[in-house]
Amino acid sequence: MVLAVLALTASTVPATQAVAAATPAYLDAERPVAQRVSDLLGRMTLAEKVGQMTQAERGAIDSDQGQITSLALGSVLSGGGSTPAENTPAAWADMVDSYQSHALATRLHIPLLYGVDSVHGHGNLVGATIFPHNIGLGATRDPQLVETIEHITATETRATGPQWVFAPCVCVARDDRWGRTYESFGEDPALVQQMTTAIEGFQGDGGKDLADSDRVLATAKHYAGDGDTTYGTSTNGTYTIDQGVTITDWQHFQQVDLAPYVTAVKQRDVGSIMPSFSSVQWTDRPGSVPVKMSANKELLTDVLKQKIGFDGVLISDWEAIHQLPGDYATQVRTAVNAGIDMFMEPYSAPQFVQTLISEVQAGRVPMARIDDAVSRILKAKFELGLFEHPYTDRSNIKTIGSVQHRAVARQAVAESQVLLKNQGALPLKPSQKIYVAGVNANDLGNQAGGWTVTWQGQSGNTSFPGTTILQGIQQAAKNVTYSADASAPTAGSDVGVVVIGETPYAEGVGDVGNGHTLDISPADRANIDKVCGAIKPCVVLDVAGRPQIVTDELSKMDAFVMSWLPGSEGAGVADVLFGKKPFTGKLSVSWPRSEAQEPINIGDRNYDPLFPYGYGLTTRR
């Protein structure tokens, strides 16, 4: 019997070793990530490597998902408003898993990375928790809350399939005429650096937690200087400032525009960074001309990768390389050699693959550059655990839009409110007869702003669930009259509340001068005049992504509150109005007296804003 066992054991040893030898090292989860990357890279053809560097929009491949396999695509994304036909958590997960099955059908079974813009919650998904935009979160001065918010966002996002978010924006907004001002935490680089806790909310502890079902790969954007471009320098269509030129000297660029990325890399170990559409032109270098960031080898490779030590993925912005000089081959070659690793080529993935292969074969792009790019991409995929668990872990799907998640969003709304004036009007009392005016009092879409369900966002209350500011007020007080245009009689009211503000926009579409202004609308002005002229005290709330010009109206108000873009939980505004929670928010940007005063920032010579950076009255509960 003993001899038989020994014989059996001896006969199985070679078989076990044979199986181990047949399993590629890159599929062995016990090995270090660096070893797995090296092993897999050594097995890949040039075409497979270039495929990994390519990201396509789901709309371009959905009807022919075989392209994922034939091109060996490394990534697919949903642009703003790009969703499955049925915009539900399960449909999202089914969609991403379908794409993943085609990636796993490739020769080496390399899983797909799926990216999405979760910039204030999983905004593309109907039913997700929609948080205040970053400009409001900056006003909270609460880095721990920001980390918690992005952990929730990561949880809701990954439960529906995407493992990669194009957030947070760590730009420093230096000109409120910029249409992306609300995506910035503020005008002071020190504040933005504090709020890079967002990255840890998304990713957890560096690469250690990325494989967890409640974490995603984060993207610090837009490197670097996109909030600091000079008004009038944009050459993109009708944009006035977005995608323009940052005209600066090295010291200012380092202290203001670059600083948050140093923190993002060195302290937060951010997994990816997205170069900006904007350009840099140096004032301290004679003969300097604007260079698009996608072509800036000095800033992408020499500074970011080598000096700062970034070891993650550089992902280009939407068709960004198409803005570079020259023909398409020149654009591809320039951007790859500058240091970009993955290319967001939403509708030209096949052309990109073919072009880059040709450039390498012609010797115009070194193989070492390709290997560096692909190594970074594979590292992210291994750390995300995609080789072991490529399909969506749906265990957290029921937490999406949960009571607990919305409670955190409501807390964020309350903490973000900035009380700029109060002459005995606040807090309101539940017993008062309250007259509420203004479209933005009862419009979820306006309250959430851009990047909500669709790219530009949209007015109205039909596209996603939530609570409007009016509904929050109605929950707190029984006697509330609402009149959007202030046409209802005001007689008998104890207090007036006028909600003014902006309608949704995103990116350069929202630039001042591109159909937008910092001035409040004639309708809002009329509502202030009518309600504040008839009812004392009168409270005005501003629901907007940036300061608006209220200089001439301020004297008519007894209280003035900046509500920013609060998202889906308008009851958080009511919480501070009625004193359930104290006002603690501080301005994350300087408030101009006039549009002509822009750009105005803390530290400027002759600094004279209407309200200074950091201003905000506090109240007790």
Automatic annotation (TrEMBL):
Limits of the Glycoside hydrolase family 3 N-terminal domain: 45-379
Residues spanning the signal sequence: 1-20
Catalytic activity entry: Hydrolysis of terminal, non-reducing beta-D-glucosyl residues with release of beta-D-glucose
Domain Glycoside hydrolase family 3 C-terminal: 418-618
InterPro entries, alphabetized: Cellulose_Degrad_GH3 (IPR051915), GH (IPR017853), Glyco_hydro_3_AS (IPR019800), Glyco_hydro_3_C (IPR002772), Glyco_hydro_3_C_sf (IPR036881), Glyco_hydro_3_N (IPR001764), Glyco_hydro_3_N_sf (IPR036962)
Enzyme nomenclature, EC number: 3.2.1.21
UniProt protein name: beta-glucosidase
Provenance organism: Amycolatopsis acididurans
